[in-house]
Specification:
By secondary structure, the chain is of the alpha+beta class. The chain contains 15 helices and 15 strands. Helix 1 packs across helix 2. The longest helix is centred in the N-terminal third of the chain and has 20 residues.
């Protein structure tokens, strides 16, 4: 689609994926988003850059979303949002207040024609394009948390969902702590100014460029400090435009151990996957174990999928899981696109179909009721004989 419109051009729907760290935005029917940008905007009053999710109340969230959505339309895709359908990718754990304010901004301020909220875990399965792709264990490894929801025959199994704060933010925190400790104790060439340069953006860049997930055998050797193991080579990283700092090899390959170390509840990412399978019915378990689908930007780390498969094979042999799960193998789907926008691509496919016009909430319907249908509200979960939504009184 061109970056300009005529009166005769078809107005394509837009697909919006508001992630905690990055937002994906583009047109339905395309194979990639037009932009992937940080989910932040200068505050309308103070002009300081703030994350959309750092809102104080509904009024604050409303003003942030108005500025952010205006920037998306008029800076990145150059179209007017009025009279345009919008498909929004959302997590099943999205706060109700957020989706209500987002709908209010779109319908009342930008006057879009219709809005449809779809669960990202469900539509992500449609990108596989293979028979039986409606069944899988979708693991979304994002920035603030890892959210796992089994999908069986196109239906999310909500009784088995799992969520823990093991994600990119936890890795960056571990990386920063390790680097600060190394600079203060072991690297005499590093100045206090170098430590000051370790901003959140710098740490994220170091994580993406220099770090990886080490195999299980090497991780055990690092954990056993009595065993000598040759670490990966050190790398140099430029900060402040002129200074070079050294990133030690052992930090490069151990900062992602937060995913596999057990917390106080004896849980880790592999445990979370196996616990979700245990909570599903017996006839689902084998199919879910053989259809694990990793999405989210943090799952793109080199070695992540291989290490996760090693951990699962190790845990399934332990007595706790061996007595509960009769599974001997795990299989992972290979994504057709980069994992960080798999969910957006699923929304793009969904938005290009006739289902968008059938299931969307229209602006007229919203203005009449001033509410957004929500799966967790029993008010919208009753079938009527006419096929429309019947309100429970």
């Amino acid at each position: 689609m061109p970056l300009y419109e005529t009166n005769y051009a078809e107005k394509h729907a837009v697909v919006l994926d508001l992630g905690i760290r990055y937002t994906k935005f583009g047109f339905a029917g395309e194979d990639s988003p037009r932009c992937i940008i940080p989910t932040e905007i200068p505050d309308p009053e103070t002009r300081q850059v703030r994350s959309i999710y750092s809102y104080k109340d509904e009024t604050d969230l409303y003003s942030l979303l108005v500025e952010f959505i205006h920037m998306l339309h008029f800076k990145h895709i150059l179209v007017s949002p009025k009279d345009r359908r919008v498909l929004i990718l959302e997590s099943l754990l999205c706060p109700t207040v957020f989706r209500d304010v987002l709908a209010k901004v779109l319908f009342r301020h930008f006057e879009v024609s219709s809005v449809l909220f779809v669960p990202v875990h469900l539509v992500a399965m449609s990108t596989l394009g293979s028979p039986g792709s409606g069944t899988g264990l979708v693991v979304d490894v994002g920035h603030s948390e890892t959210l796992l929801i089994p999908v069986y025959c196109g239906v999310p199994v909500l009784a088995a969902w799992q969520a823990q704060p093991w994600a990119g933010k936890a890795v960056q925190l571990r990386l920063r702590e390790s680097l600060v400790e190394h600079f203060k104790n072991g690297d005499s060439t590093t100045s206090p100014d170098d430590i000051q340069e370790l901003t959140e953006e710098t740490i994220e860049d170091i994580k993406v460029r220099a770090c990886f997930v080490t195999p299980l055998e090497r991780a055990r050797k690092f954990a056993d400090k009595s065993t000598d193991v040759k670490a990966a080579p050190d790398v140099s990283y430029r900060v402040g435009g002129s200074r070079l700092i050294t990133i030690p090899g052992y930090i490069r390959e151990t900062c992602h151990e937060v995913f596999f170390e057990r917390d106080s509840d004896q849980l880790s990412l592999p445990n979370m996957i196996l616990d979700a399978i245990v909570k599903c019915n017996v006839d689902m378990r084998k199919q879910l174990a053989e259809n694990i689908f990793l999405i989210g930007g943090s799952s793109m780390t080199p070695g992540f999928k291989y290490r996760l498969s090693q951990e699962l094979k190790h845990l399934i042999a332990t007595p706790y899981y061996a007595n509960r799960l009769k599974i001997n193998k795990f299989k992972f789907h290979a994504s057709r696109v980069k994992e960080n926008y798999v969910g957006w691509l699923g929304g793009s496919l969904f938005g290009a179909s006739d289902l968008l016009s059938v299931r969307s909430l229209t602006r007229e319907g919203y203005l009449n009721n001033a509410t957004v249908p929500d799966w967790c509200n029993l008010m919208y979960n009753t079938k009527s004989n006419a096929g429309s939504i019947k309100k429970i009184i």
